[in-house]
């Protein structure tokens, strides 16, 4: 005990002696003469402008090469793995590796001509009564409620796709994974089941690939971005928000929507054209639920897109217009005027975009005969490509070569 007391009395002396050789302000270590540059914060993928193309199993490599000569720098490649397996009498998941090898061939072909690829899951990865559900099927009210297996199938599909494309060479080639094409209820309302499952699909992809950009289309119409914005915005920061744009619909889709003149069994050409003909700017309906046609011009297009542009501005997120188009038999001058207006809006808002479509269906093709006299019925043989370059083709070649050249120079 005496020893302990003695030590306690001596402790202040020991501590004081020990401090004598320690300076009040010890010198700081020499700073690193070349501090590392902080990593750049990537807030959006590179801007792209290009084409929607047909299903991967029907797409010719030459088509990819040809569109690259137009100046396009991206393709939105349709994936239809359920249809592919069904046609071959195989189980979807058994046939999937074979199908993804085929997709990979097209990705490599695009890479060889400096064209990026958006992988677009264009159909449900399930079967209903032995068939692949169509767009009309999965847009029916109740489809998603009645088929809860959609969630597990979508998660499984995207994990398989992500695992197939893990090679580093695809890191900059694949622009994004487009999770599902055109989900909606009756063409207007958002599918609540779809909005609820998207975070889990993204999480599943992230277990395989932390960096790939994910393209998310919440619904068919721009108003969804205002009505459902809290459900749409994702915690994941590498998400591109997508919309398809065909407004006004009675102009852009004249002859194939509403009165369905294209499928008529009794109309003459003259009667059909008189029924569907719309010019732009001019009177038209933006959507099926509108009771009356109203005058549509660039200002009304901007108003139609305002929920999307406001969403992008508020959350500072990138946007892809995954599809936009005008039917080939619309009045040519009106079509080109519409293209100019919508592309100007897209560019002003820094949107990436894909024209619908390059050599998919003749009715949308920039190489098909154009104008009112080019109209044909579904009961007739579709026309061959026009022998001379169309006005629409000339316009898009100019746009691609100017804008994509500017992008490569500025990086924006």
UniProtKB/TrEMBL annotation:
<dbReference type="InterPro" id="IPR050386">
    <property type="entry name" value="Glycosyl_hydrolase_5"/>
</dbReference>
<keyword id="KW-0326">Glycosidase</keyword>
<keyword id="KW-0624">Polysaccharide degradation</keyword>
<dbReference type="GO" id="GO:0005576">
    <property type="term" value="C:extracellular region"/>
</dbReference>
<dbReference type="InterPro" id="IPR001547">
    <property type="entry name" value="Glyco_hydro_5"/>
</dbReference>
<feature type="region of interest" description="Disordered">
    <location>
        <begin position="22"/>
        <end position="44"/>
    </location>
</feature>
<keyword id="KW-0732">Signal</keyword>
<dbReference type="GO" id="GO:0030245">
    <property type="term" value="P:cellulose catabolic process"/>
</dbReference>
<comment type="similarity">
    <text>Belongs to the glycosyl hydrolase 5 (cellulase A) family.</text>
</comment>
<dbReference type="GO" id="GO:0008422">
    <property type="term" value="F:beta-glucosidase activity"/>
</dbReference>
<keyword id="KW-0136">Cellulose degradation</keyword>
<feature type="signal peptide">
    <location>
        <begin position="1"/>
        <end position="18"/>
    </location>
</feature>
<keyword id="KW-0119">Carbohydrate metabolism</keyword>
<dbReference type="Pfam" id="PF00150">
    <property type="entry name" value="Cellulase"/>
</dbReference>
<feature type="compositionally biased region" description="Pro residues">
    <location>
        <begin position="24"/>
        <end position="39"/>
    </location>
</feature>
<dbReference type="InterPro" id="IPR017853">
    <property type="entry name" value="GH"/>
</dbReference>
<keyword id="KW-0378">Hydrolase</keyword>
<feature type="domain" description="Glycoside hydrolase family 5">
    <location>
        <begin position="62"/>
        <end position="357"/>
    </location>
</feature>
<protein>
    <submittedName>
        <fullName>Cellulase (Glycosyl hydrolase family 5)</fullName>
    </submittedName>
</protein>
<dbReference type="GO" id="GO:0009986">
    <property type="term" value="C:cell surface"/>
</dbReference>
């Amino acid at each position: 005990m005496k020893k302990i007391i003695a030590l306690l009395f001596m402790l202040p002396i020991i501590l004081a002696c020990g401090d004598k050789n320690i300076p009040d302000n010890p010198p700081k270590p020499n700073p690193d003469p070349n501090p590392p540059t902080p990593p750049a914060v990537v807030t959006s993928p590179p801007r792209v402008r290009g084409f929607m193309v047909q299903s991967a199993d029907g797409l010719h490599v030459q088509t990819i090469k040809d569109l690259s000569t137009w100046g396009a720098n991206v393709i939105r490649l349709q994936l239809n793995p359920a249809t592919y397996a069904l046609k071959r009498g195989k189980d979807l998941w058994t046939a999937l590796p074979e199908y993804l090898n085929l997709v990979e061939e097209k990705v490599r072909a695009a890479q060889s001509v400096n064209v990026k690829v958006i992988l677009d899951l264009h159909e449900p990865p399930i079967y209903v009564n032995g068939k692949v559900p169509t767009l009309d099927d999965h847009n029916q009210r109740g489809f998603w409620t009645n088929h809860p297996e959609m969630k597990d199938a979508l998660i499984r599909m995207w994990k398989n796709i992500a695992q197939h494309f893990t090679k580093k060479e695809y890191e900059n080639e694949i622009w994004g994974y487009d999770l599902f094409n055109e989900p909606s209820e009756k063409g207007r309302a958002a599918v609540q089941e779809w909005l609820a499952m998207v975070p889990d699909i993204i999480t599943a992809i992230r277990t395989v690939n932390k960096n790939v950009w994910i393209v998310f289309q919440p619904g068919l119409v721009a108003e969804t971005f205002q009505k459902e914005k809290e459900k749409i915005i994702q915690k994941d920061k590498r998400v591109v928000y997508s919309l398809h744009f065909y407004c006004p619909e009675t102009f852009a889709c004249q002859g194939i929507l509403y009165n369905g003149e294209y499928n008529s069994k009794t109309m003459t050409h003259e009667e059909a054209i008189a029924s569907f003909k719309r010019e732009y700017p001019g009177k038209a309906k933006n959507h099926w639920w509108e009771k009356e046609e109203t005058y549509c011009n660039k200002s009304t297009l901007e108003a139609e897109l305002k929920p999307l542009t406001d969403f992008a501005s508020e959350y500072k997120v990138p946007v892809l217009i995954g599809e936009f188009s005008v039917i080939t038999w619309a009045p040519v001058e009106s079509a080109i005027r519409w293209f100019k207006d919508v592309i100007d809006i897209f560019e002003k808002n820094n949107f990436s975009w894909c024209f619908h479509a390059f050599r998919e269906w003749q009715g949308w093709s920039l190489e098909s005969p154009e104008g009112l006299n080019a109209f044909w019925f579904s009961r007739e043989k579709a026309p061959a490509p026009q022998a001379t370059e169309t006005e629409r083709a000339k316009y898009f070649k100019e746009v691609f070569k100017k804008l994509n050249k500017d992008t490569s120079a500025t990086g924006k």
